[in-house]
Write a structure and sequence with these properties.
Chain lengths: ~350, ~675, ~200
């Protein structure tokens, strides 16, 4: 039984309630226990730090201080929302490396009777926990209803893998953790090229046309690759791609219909949980038609869909060999990276 | 508590010379005061003459020393001036001219260590006095030393058969010296043999290189050892013993005529990752290219059906002179040489490390070396510039500069040749396909002869330039007109707007990197590498082909990225440097070295592995270590490391060092004040 | 660049570049920018910005304070961090964008009633007053202020969808330790004001 501190973030309460529900539904299978941070406050998203520099660190510092108080032997804090994750881990990083800043932040925290010791917490995204701590083998063993035939495009968004000051994820451009995860669930994995492109963040409220274009290209490419569903790991991405998909369709006069689900929801389905307990049904773009294909019976064999961009060439000049996905900037043998 | 004065006056007669160095020293240090103080205060230590002079290193300055030695009967000389790195040899020579052993002269630095690092005149002057006192106290303990003379074996070892190695080999061989040219690959020629054309003249690379290769292969003074590697080096300058492993070719070179029937008949085809940069094929028994020197093929053990399964042997069956020999073994030879030249070249950056450029994921993204093979008329497409499908001619091509260069995440340096190489590619693509060509650059680096004119030629030919480092290459179409294309996204910084340019083919100008085994090679030959992995020259400006290790030289791209003219120049330069040694027949080595007192040595051997120059050997029978004086560079590591204190350094004995420390502390002890090193 | 200079240590007024770097946590490395354009090339919003990120950095070096802080560049940054991970000189570009946003507001270069700054200011107001984000209130205020009447039907549809699917609260949630949080945030603003 692995125990983790858990920072839900504002969205998991309502907007991304299904993310929360699906995480809780699968935690027993993953043998994980969560201790939620009591009375946490908003992480500030990308807004608080746009106006208040020190204030934003203090805002996040309060959460870190509360977590430290609750920690009681477990130092890892799991964060499901990518924006909360980025904000908390970036704050931890800066407080640990910039003593002057840490001093100022603690001065502010004192006014509220709190204090945080930098370095006391290890902030990790829930995908990191599931992939690295639980592991693919355990996940495979829990699958009772493989998602055979379901074509899944994995979408990471930005903030989980960039800027990654703590080097948790090896590849900031084309990661493959979700792909491996979906594969373990039995789904058919699509090599989705825009997996790490931005969903447009808060742009729908700042400048809608800009946002719609960014959303359109993601949906368009997923549709091009004939994805049945696009999985995500961030409430903001889910909201933008799902809730704004009808608006985007209206704006461009298109007719895309790509359902957007949380990766934990698919995990739950593979583990045999019901759609209801996983919060499926709250999406703007209905996921049920796609999911009915993997419902109770194994779907009949279909002719393989036309792949737009064949990667393997039978004739012509040979392609370079691609190694196992561990390539990072500092993987050249024998050299130290000077950062 | 150190003695402040010697109880009796020193027997030595010491001359002290304090240099002004113009205003370099005199601007901060009161040089007259220093020499006056030396004459007075250090008289007890033996100072009989103390002078100051504007420029001690000038002929007149040197003559001062010579005259005083003769007229005043000096037995020791102390010069307080610049750093010994610069003029120690000068003043030693002057001392020698005066009739005194040159090692009885000490140069102490009151410039780099005093006037250039302090600004308080009073304190700097006091420190200069202390430095002079240290020098005086030390020099009393100097003993006359004679440089060691060692003979130079006339043979030379050159490691690396690329254009640099070949150039050096020919220069030496034509001068009548015997050269071993060792090359790891099955043929000489190196990377230059892979190229199609060379900038800026657009000479066909093979056409200018192969005559040199043939000369090197046929030269009676060059022993060509291809498919070979150096496995051991011992000895010292003039007297190296080198062991070379000649890997088995499985071809009897006495019988082989180079007819090529074996390759023709061989049924096993594999991707040629080496010469064809992964873009073409070869057989399991092969020569890399038709003009290979030597002409003998090799059998690739990892892919040969006979070695894998015990069957086939088609080559043996068909070989007319019966030259295939599957029983051949690696052969080890040991040869004596006097000097070693490393010309091991470079390797190319692997752009799979930059995923956003799409290499390996998107079919029509090519590396520069792949494109060289593509455009080479002897390459896999016969010189036709086509896409990865082997047939389609591109109608738009993007060429990306600085892939893996000028980037803190990969290689911080500039690879020197990629701008010119990219321009060359642009020209070739234009000429052969008429396609639209876009060059994406940060800066245009075209410094050589006719280089900028080549850039202008590109402009005349209609190549389009976008100043902006490429952000990504993608096949995810976003706008109409992008379907089925590769889109290069970059900011055109000269107009300040992001652009998406659809092309059919992308060429990445990849960085040049040191060979991946640079550390092992450095250790094998006893030389150092920089943090990037390039071999380090003795002096970046004034001695670019020598190393700090006597007798080992470096040349070409192994030292740092450079173009062919620079590599060839270095090949000639290093040959000239080596010639110097060989012609003199012997070399004088600095007498500063360590000696082990075998009475005190306990045989613990801690020093053996610590020596960076592998200069310490161990006598099994006597259970003691011994320093080879010819290899020892006098670094002092072993002296410090020896737990028994059994190692002493001539030129840096304990007495000398302690005496110098006492001298340095002289003034402050008198004044009973802590020494302030501050400004 | 970690430690802020004490007022008495500042001998001359900092130029705009130094000011921006100092206001950014950690070592932003802005002085190392070689103007290669990777940031402008990677930025998804770059086509819609007045000036690309790279141009802004050139303008900062040229001491063009007003032009930089009046532009919409920083506000269109969506924090995707592509620029930061691809920059060959490892400049912390996104963090610098945050600095520019807060400078623009504090130094009075942002006009009131500008959609992008209003969004942040309103968001922050709810965080200050309740301790949590309040999407319904935020979207409504932003919508009423900055969306043209023509778009109201679409917006209302989205809003209704969110409510009926149970994805949005009609009322804000208040944390228990709100008083403490407000003290903390006030003190932080005080300290930040002092060090400028």
């Amino acid at each position: 039984m692995k125990k983790y501190l858990f920072f839900p973030g504002c969205s998991l309460e309502r907007n991304a309630r299904s993310y929360y529900d699906s995480i809780m539904a699968i935690r027993d299978d993953l043998d994980i226990e969560f201790e939620e941070i009591q009375d946490y406050n908003c992480c500030g998203a990308t807004e608080y730090t746009s106006i208040h520099r020190l204030g934003s660190f203090a805002l996040l510092g309060r959460n870190l201080a509360l977590a430290e108080k609750q920690s009681n032997g477990t130092h890892t804090m799991t964060v499901p929302c990518s924006a909360c994750y980025l904000n908390l881990s970036k704050t931890e990083h800066y407080l640990r490396t910039d003593a002057h800043l840490a001093g100022q932040v603690n001065q502010a925290l004192e006014a509220g009777g709190l204090h945080y010791n930098p370095g006391m917490l290890d902030i990790r995204h829930i995908l990191d926990i599931i992939f690295n701590d639980v592991g693919i083998d355990v996940i495979k063993s829990k699958v009772v209803h493989p998602l055979t035939g379901l074509r899944v495009a994995s979408y990471y968004g930005c903030m989980i893998i960039r800027p990654d000051y703590e080097n948790r994820f090896p590849d900031p451009e084309y990661p493959d953790l979700l792909e491996k995860l979906m594969s373990a669930l039995g789904a058919e994995v699509i090599d989705y090229p825009l997996r790490a492109h931005c969903c447009s963040g808060h742009m729908p409220s700042i400048s809608a046309p800009v946002a719609y274009e960014l959303i359109r290209r993601l949906i368009h490419t997923a549709d091009e690759y004939k994805a049945d569903v696009l999985v995500t790991l961030c409430p903001m991405c889910q909201l933008n791609l799902d809730a704004y998909q009808p608006d985007m369709n209206r704006h461009f006069n298109t007719n895309y219909h790509v359902p957007i689900l949380y990766f934990t929801q698919l995990m739950g389905l593979a583990f045999g949980k019901t759609a209801k307990e996983l919060g499926i049904g709250k999406e703007f773009i209905d996921a049920r038609p796609a999911l009915s294909r993997i419902g109770i019976e194994v779907p009949p064999a279909e002719p393989a869909p036309e792949v737009r961009h064949p990667r393997k060439k039978e004739e012509g000049l040979p392609m370079p060999k691609m190694p196992a996905k561990n390539m990072s900037a500092s993987s050249q043998g024998g050299k130290d990276e000077v950062k | 508590m150190a003695e402040q004065d010697n109880p009796q006056k020193s027997q030595e007669r010491i001359g002290v010379y304090v240099c002004h160095c113009g205003s370099n020293i005199a601007g901060t240090v009161d040089v007259e005061e220093v020499h006056r103080w030396a004459a007075e205060r250090l008289e007890q230590d033996g100072v009989v003459v103390a002078r100051d002079y504007k420029f001690m290193c000038s002929s007149l300055g040197q003559e001062l020393i010579e005259r005083d030695i003769k007229n005043e009967g000096l037995t020791r000389v102390v010069v307080a001036a610049c750093s010994p790195h610069l003029h120690e040899a000068t003043f030693r020579e002057a001392t020698k001219q005066g009739g005194l052993n040159p090692y009885l002269c000490e140069l102490v630095s009151i410039r780099e260590q005093v006037s250039w690092v302090h600004s308080d005149k009073q304190k700097a002057t006091e420190k200069a006095k202390a430095v002079v006192a240290g020098g005086v106290r030390r020099v009393i303990h100097n003993v006359p030393l004679e440089p060691m003379r060692v003979p130079i074996h006339p043979d030379v070892l050159i490691v690396g058969g690329g254009v640099t190695g070949i150039q050096a080999a020919l220069e030496l061989a034509n001068g009548g010296k015997h050269v071993y040219l060792v090359e790891r690959d099955s043929t000489i020629g190196g990377h230059m043999a892979q190229l199609d054309k060379t900038f800026p003249t657009l000479d066909c690379s093979a056409c200018i290189l192969t005559p040199r290769m043939v000369s090197a292969g046929n030269h009676r003074n060059i022993t060509l050892l291809t498919w070979s590697e150096v496995t051991d080096v011992s000895g010292y300058v003039g007297n190296f013993t080198v062991t070379i492993r000649k890997k088995a070719r499985y071809i009897n070179t006495n019988l082989c005529t180079g007819c090529g029937v074996c390759s023709e008949k061989c049924p096993k085809k594999v991707i040629d990752d080496n010469f064809e940069a992964g873009l073409g094929y070869r057989k399991a028994v092969y020569t890399s290219f038709p003009q290979a020197v030597p002409k003998y093929p090799v059998i690739d053990v990892e892919n040969c059906t006979y070695f894998l399964k015990g069957t086939c042997k088609a080559c043996e069956r068909f070989c007319p002179p019966g030259a295939i020999d599957f029983t051949q073994k690696d052969e080890f030879i040991t040869v004596p040489v006097g000097n070693i030249i490393l010309a091991t070249g470079y390797q190319t950056f692997d752009p799979r490390r930059i995923p956003q450029y799409g290499y390996g994921r998107l079919a029509n993204v090519f590396t520069s070396m792949e494109f060289e093979r593509l455009s080479n008329s002897a390459g896999p497409t016969g010189g036709k510039v086509v896409l990865r499908d082997g047939k389609t001619t591109p109608r738009a091509v993007g060429i990306i500069h600085c892939v893996g260069s000028r980037d803190r995440k990969y290689n911080n340096y500039c690879s020197a040749i990629c701008c010119m190489q990219s321009l060359k590619f642009a020209h070739i693509v234009k000429e052969r396909t008429g396609a639209d060509v876009y060059e994406f650059y940060i800066d245009m680096r075209t410094p050589g002869k006719s280089y900028d004119e080549f850039y202008q030629r590109n402009l005349e030919e209609g190549v389009l330039f976008v100043r902006g480092r490429v952000a990504e290459v993608t096949d995810a179409a976003r706008l109409p007109g992008e379907e089925g294309k590769l889109i290069i996204q970059a900011e055109d910084t000269l107009i300040g707007k992001q652009r998406r340019i659809p092309v059919d083919m992308v060429i990445l100008s990849t960085a040049l990197e040191p060979r991946s085994d640079y550390e092992e090679v450095g250790k094998l030959f006893g030389i150092s590498c920089s943090t990037d992995g390039w071999f380090i020259e003795r002096h970046v400006k004034l001695d670019p082909v020598a190393t700090m290790t006597e007798g080992v030289f470096i040349a070409g791209c192994a030292v740092g990225p450079k173009d062919v003219p620079a590599s060839v120049s270095q090949g000639s330069a290093v040959a000239a440097r080596v010639f110097q040694y060989i012609q003199q027949g012997e070399i004088a080595l600095e007498p500063y070295r360590a000696t082990i007192d075998q009475e005190k040595c306990s045989g613990c051997r801690i020093c053996n592995d610590m020596c960076p120059f592998r200069a310490i050997l161990f006598h099994e029978d006597l259970m003691v270590s011994e320093v080879n004086p010819a290899l020892c560079q006098g670094c002092g590591t072993c002296v410090a490391a020896c737990p028994a204190g059994a190692i002493a350094g001539s030129g840096f004995s304990d007495e000398q060092i302690l005496a110098q420390i006492e001298g340095l502390m002289l003034i402050d002890q008198e004044q009973a004040q802590p020494v302030e090193a501050g400004l | 660049m970690n430690d802020a200079l004490q007022p008495e240590e500042v001998q001359t007024k900092l130029n705009f570049l130094e000011e921006v770097m100092q206001a950014t946590p950690g070592d932003s490395r802005l002085e190392m920018c070689i103007q290669c354009g990777t940031c402008g090339g990677s930025c998804p919003s770059s086509p819609d910005m007045d000036h690309t990120p790279r141009t802004i950095f050139a303008m900062i070096r040229a001491d063009m304070r007003e032009a930089v802080l009046r532009s919409n560049t920083a506000w269109f940054c969506i924090s995707c961090y592509y620029c930061t991970v691809r920059c060959p000189q490892e400049v912390h570009i996104t963090d610098l964008m945050y600095t520019l946003k807060s400078m623009a507001v504090r130094q009075g270069f942002t006009q009131p009633n500008t959609p992008w700054s209003d969004w942040s200011l309103t968001f922050n107001e709810y965080v200050y007053n309740y301790g949590r984000a309040f999407e319904f209130g935020l979207a409504t205020r932003q919508g009423l202020r900055h969306t043209s009447l023509l778009k109201y039907p679409g917006l209302a549809q989205l809003g209704m969808g969110m409510l009926t699917k149970g994805r949005m609260n009609l009322t804000p949630r208040r944390i228990e330790g709100l008083e403490g949080l407000q003290k903390i945030l006030n003190r932080a603003d005080e300290i930040e004001g002092e060090s400028q």
